[in-house]
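Please think about what follows:
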Amino acid sequence: MNKFFEDLGERLVAAAARRGARIEAPVLDSAVALELLELARVAAHTQERRFAPLASFMAGAAVEQMRAAGAAADPATIAAVIEEVRKELEREPPV
């Protein structure tokens, strides 16, 4: 994606290693990134601004659970799942 996210991935790997967990650096696909940003925008504008990062975190947690359950978790599928939920939220009236 870009240098910031590459560095962030390496920092997450290092932080996990300090806690005894060996993980691969997360990779952020551009289509997934776009949908996460859109989800964050919708959360911030229909709920509260501070919900935006938490909505993105929850989307990531859901994707990881999909992977663990053996569901397709390629970037296109992940982007489609996030887009589907975002569009549902957009149709609801703001709180």
Observations:
- The longest helix spans residues 51-68.
